[in-house]
Write a structure and sequence with these properties.
The complex is a heterodimer of chains A (201) and B (467).
Chain A lengths: L6 E3 L2 E3 L6 H4 L19 H4 L22 E4 L11 H9 L3 E4 L4 H8 L4 E4 L2 H11 L5 E4 L4 E4 L2 E4 L4 H9 L3 H6 L2 H14 L2 H4 L1
Parallel strand pairs in A: 2-3, 3-4, 4-5
Antiparallel strand pairs in A: 1-6, 6-7, 7-8
Chain B lengths: L4 H7 L2 E4 L5 E4 L2 E4 L5 H9 L10 E4 L16 H17 L2 E3 L9 H8 L7 E4 L13 E4 L2 H10 L1 E4 L3 E8 L8 H12 L7 E6 L1 H5 L2 H9 L8 E3 L4 H7 L8 H12 L11 E6 L6 E3 L7 E3 L13 H14 L14 E4 L1 H4 L2 H11 L9 E4 L4 H9 L2 H8 L2 E2 L20 E4 L14 E4 L2 H10 L11
Parallel strand pairs in B: 3-4, 3-6, 4-5, 6-7, 9-10, 9-12, 10-11, 15-16, 15-18, 16-17, 18-19
Antiparallel strand pairs in B: 1-2, 2-8, 13-14
Classes of the chains: A alpha/beta (201), B alpha/beta (467).
Amino acid sequence: MQKFKTIKSIPAYLPIVNIDTDMIIPKQFLKTIKRTGLGKNLFYEMRYNEKGTPIDDFILNASPFNDSKILIAGKNFGCGSSREHAPWALLDFGITCVISSSYADIFYNNCFKNGILPIVLPEAKIKELSEYSKRKEEIIVNLEKQKITFGNNEIDFEIDQFKKKCLIEGLDDIALSLEKNPKITEFEKKLSSNRPWIFND
Amino acid sequence: MSKTLYDKIWDDHLVHTQDDGTSLLYVDRHLVHEVTSPQAFEGLRNSNRKVRQPNLTLAVADHNVPTSDRSKGISDKESKLQVETLEKNCEEFGIKLFGMNDKRQGIVHIIGPEQGFTQPGSIIVCGDSHTATHGAFGSLAFGIGTSEVEHVLATQTLVQKKSKNFRIKVDGKLSIGVTSKDVILQIIGKIGTAGGTGYVIEYAGSLISSLSVEQRMTICNMTIEGGARAGLIEPDEKIFNYLNGRPMSPKKENWDKALDYWSKLKSDDDANFDKEVTLDGKDIMPMVTWGTSPQDVISIDGRIPNPENEADEDRKNSIERSLKYMGLKPGTAIKDVKIDKVFIGSCTNGRIEDLRDAAKIVKNKKVAQHVYAMVVPGSGLVKQQAEQEGLDKVFKDSGFDWREPGCSMCLAMNADKLKPEERCASTSNRNFEGRQGRGGRTHLVSPGMAAAAAISGSLDDVRKFQN
């Protein structure tokens, strides 16, 4: 996984609540056996018309937002399906940070596995940031300091310290868990005597 | 200290806990399907890792499979490649697979219980958000992403932080024509689509315990639509009887040991829940969704809401957007809404009892002329059972299309989909924009309600058809 570095980018604001993963990446693009190449299909049905032509007034189609690395969105972002294709599509488009007042659990976890930082802010702060985004000026997201800087203003954000470490160091969590191999083996030994039916049938 | 059922299952699966509470949990059962697994197997290959416990893993192709004649194979090239990739991966890593032509093939959340792979007190995961279904057996079951699928394949564990406890109590009795689908739709309407975020829900109360095993699965299945990753129900005799003798259920002395363990799986009387909601069965009516989120739900006697009556700006915008997409006007009686298609199936309502419910309504009646209606059984075994009972004939006689098992038009990854602006009464779980096909308009209902809509040609009250 790519190490997460400080981001400087003009944020794009999508003022919709409950953006589900079907919206982020519709099912026709789930037939891939790869993780890459999904960026062009991100938000497909909002972004292109039925003929596949880009819809001009969709935010991510217009400059400078077509280069945004930061997406601000309404509450409960990423609800619905567990498809990791949603963060893959965001990442492939170039978005490495999402800012919302809340996320669905599975999507939230999936972000961290792909080097994407999902920031949770109170509604009032989201409003402030989304207003600022109309200026089309860069903002800075610094994970190390847990700080968003826009103009002369700053917002601090909270994050789970273990998740922060994994993002900053780009850690492979399978490798981390495999270091616990002796503990897993020990658990399995106990399991085969305490709940033998798990293995035996 | 008193514990909830969720607390107990969690504690029994702890391999390791870090100081910050991040825990490594052992996974007893892993279900795998073709859409969310190829990149996980690829990851294993790239890092030279093996599947730690192939025997605790079961695979099936369901999302992409055609529901028409299968002897011709899959015509869509990408779908075909994905299904073949699953076959190759299962062979290479030694995982049991129900192939497309195996009569045990079906939707992953239907075959798990059917085979006895799903068991009380176990942790069950799958790269699919509707894994919550298995919670009906008193297991902790939840959906995971593909990176986590790879993690489970490699380590048979998952890194998790504990959720909070949420109890939803439903007491009383179901009125005639009301099903567990209506119960869960009403719950989601009440708590909202994010109401369960950060929680594991335990469903309790006299109405919940009165439900059959299959009805309980419908409730747990849609837990994710209320934002909670997992929903579970204390297992009881009905669950144990259901599992007894299934191909992958414990046998002989292991059955006795398992039964002993399973019988103790319940929340302590004085266990603490961080959040509680109570419903009364008598207040639950046949429900139908009008919008593009499962929380946009009203009873069949209701009218489409008016966004102007909403104080909350976000909610107002969201209703306006939904109504525009759905092609509906505020104040319209939902019963006056004409439909084009009917879909009966999915991991929510594709089991034998669902088909029996629907067949009872359509028997000796005809599907309205302008309506195309389809039944997609949840598995090959459900299909076989239905055919033994003559349900296929009931459906076909009334004009329904009787199809092969799979996920089908619940998510429209295969050829079964809505055309733009087509309106569907569907027994599935999501009414998101584009879910059943670009521009398609979905109304979520119970199997009986879907059957009633097929006959009437409009959304209708199933109670009208009860004898």
